[in-house]
Amino acid sequence: MRIQGTIGTPYLPASSSVRLVGVLVTVSDIPSVALPIRLLVVVDKSESMMLPMITQEQLEALRRRGVLRQTVRDGVTVWEYSGAYAPELENAPRGIDFVKDALRQIVERLTDADEFALVAFASNAQTVIPLSSGRYRREVIRQLDNLETLELGTETRLSTGLKEAMAQIQGTTADGVVNRIVVLTDGFAQDESDCHMVAAQAASMGVSISTIGLGAQFNDELMTSLADRTGGNAEWVPDPTQIPQAMAKEFEQARKVGAPQAQLLLQLSQGVEVRRAYKIQPVLAPAPAQVVGERAVALQLGDLVSGQTAQVLVELLAPPRPEGVFRLASIRPQWRTKTGWQQGSPIDIVVTYTTDAQKFSFVDPQVARAMEMVTAAELQTRALRDLQVGQVGSATKKLEAAATRLLNLGERERAQETIKLAQSLQKGEQVSPEQTKRLRYQTRRLQ
């Protein structure tokens, strides 16, 4: 694996104050190896997953007949059936049916070297299929039907499912294996702090958590943060019929991982600090930083897929210095293999302090674009947080500022969606959960 660094401002004013320096690190030549997958699927088995799905026309017909009433189940607004026989409901598919179909397709594609486990959760959690070798895939497929008969309560307590999955991994090795927990949920998790604690444990053990949020009622900020903290993926599936496709995509990416739990190791020179770090490609998301030694920081990149190119923006705070050449940091990649950690060749990030104003006015356009993208993404994220606590005015201003940056980046379509949302807030209109989720997940694809 090879890395290349592009510095935004190679020249800095001598004897000035602390300056911000952007560095765009490109990761390429990701190994192409066939690694076994240890896949643990954590499925929401709340009541909402068992409800029949019907078309809008069928729903209107049943509503007019007076056999449906609106209620809330597991934090999700649903139509509840009561009254006369309705064949439309009896024959309608349910969310759990698409989950079982997705799991069946994945299990059929396991190799003998792979491992699979299935955990279900609601108020409580239960292991449906303990961690099993892929060579027993036929028996595993037969056990998938056990998912339907479980009764685990009416709440959504995701941490119970995550803990149950982590218990399956205890005692296993993370070297040379793609360790992946995949969460499917359509409910609003009521135990966010506990989920973050499990995510910290997973990250320390080399386990990625990928999340698939279904519908519009799940807490999307939690789902994306769990993925970002552990190096997994985060997907939004508005329609349950898309579950098999989303699960297949996740499995395919796991199969192509060539550098599990990759990191960038930064050895910082005296006086240099990391301001923030963001993954730019393949998704726009924070790159968690961990102090690993004296003036040493590890940026978590997660599982890198062979054939792809990854990019990370590292923003450094450079100290004031006299004229001369100065190394800000040394950066080296590392990733897990069958024999432990493997490291790539390091690169040095060097700047020149000068009194020549013409030199330090230059800014690399590629790095400048990446910094603008990150700023726009953070503005949108903070706007959504403001909305959650009712600070509509503050959210509107942040959305407008984000839209301006998106327009400057040439992202006209995404800018128009952001402007539309800001205008709705200005008019006092209610913002739907679908709108906020679309904004959050589309921002992650900004490149």
Provide structural commentary.
- Strands 2, 12, 15, 16, 18, 19 and 20 form a 7-stranded mixed sheet that branches. Strands 8-7-4-9-10-11 form a 6-stranded mixed sheet, with helices on both faces. Strands 1-3-17-13-14 form a 5-stranded antiparallel sheet, covered by helices on one side.
- It folds into 3 domains: 2-30 and 258-363, Immunoglobulin-like, CATH 2.60.40; 37-51 and 91-255, von Willebrand factor, type A domain (Rossmann fold); 366-443, no CATH class.
- Helix 3 runs antiparallel to helix 4 (137-143).
- Strand 5 and strand 6 form a beta hairpin.
- The protein is α+β, with helices and mostly antiparallel strands and 447 residues long.
- The radius of gyration is 24 Å and the shape is globular.
- The protein has helices at residues 56-64, 87-90, 95-108, 137-143, 146-149, 158-169, 192-204, 220-230, 243-255, 365-388, 392-408, 412-426, 433-443; strands spanning 2-7, 11-13, 19-28, 37-44, 68-73, 76-81, 115-121, 125-133, 178-185, 208-214, 234-237, 257-268, 273-281, 285-286, 289-293, 296-305, 310-318, 324-337, 340-343, 347-354.
- The protein has 13 helices and 20 strands.
- The relative contact order is 0.15.
- The model has no long low-confidence stretch (mean pLDDT 90).
